[in-house]
Amino acid sequence: MKAAVTVTPGNPEVILLREVMKPKVKPGWVLIRVKAFGLNRSELFTRRGDSPGVEFPRIQGIECVGYIEEDPSNTFAKGQKVAALMGGMGRFYDGGYAEFTLVPLEIVLPFESRLPWHILGAIPEMFQTVSGSLNQALEISEGETLLIRGGTSSIGMLACQLAKTKGLTVLSTTRTDEKVQALKDNGADHVVIDDGEISSKVKTIYPEGVNKVLELIGTRTLKDSLKCIKTGGMVCMTGILGNEWTMKEFTPMGDIPSLGKLTVYMGESSNLPKGLLQEFIDEVEKGSVKLNIDKVFTLEQVPEAHRYMEENKAKGKIVVELK
Question: Where is each Enoyl reductase (ER) domain found (predicted)?
Fold first, then answer.
């Protein structure tokens, strides 16, 4: 089979298209014929050698959609449409950057849909992350104010839409004036230009601060995001768009405001209740939710797609579709 193999840690050029052996199925695992997959920021870190415990060469990819090719447990019939995500996929065993992938049964979610594969490929990890961040981590509720830091990312765009359906007022950030209209068109009530320090700008809109912050930039802006919450507010760090894992200095009793809450979301497929993925796909199919897909690449173009992601050019999800 063909696979995009990360042969060694490094820049996007370390990902090479190769002919490799098709995985052999084993008990407790299922073989999936991959039709599409989304690119994720964590895969950039893995490629660069920043993910602990990853051995190279490695076929990356923490998610995919496709058909069941073989399932020795007979849980799924051959040809069943499925998604697979997380659970060590693309890190501790080979993942979705290939024509076939062998994954544990417990990370596989079935679905039915008439949507094209490139749209389905954008959904699993993005939806799992947004749903878990908003509902489980931030525990959003109607009438609250939500600041999305990193609003033009695929996670940020979908988070805005889902928060609006729950009755929240959304502030969303971008670093450039060119993306302001895209955020407004996506449903944001307020758009804030992010120059690294936006707490004073947020306080001009809501002097007491906002209820919740979805932090997608990461450690670079976390301290400033904590300054944006009102008394008893909460910040959830979900993304690392700023490309920095750790903070040089952090003083909990000082950087976290009194009675403020700081949490993180690092979800797995198990965080998606059964049926929730199907419900979301149905909403996309009906047009109730609009996915922001920026660009679709081929398997041969995975290195180019990684470079595009690393340069922060996308205004939505980057997808790879296999023909």
Answer: 10-320
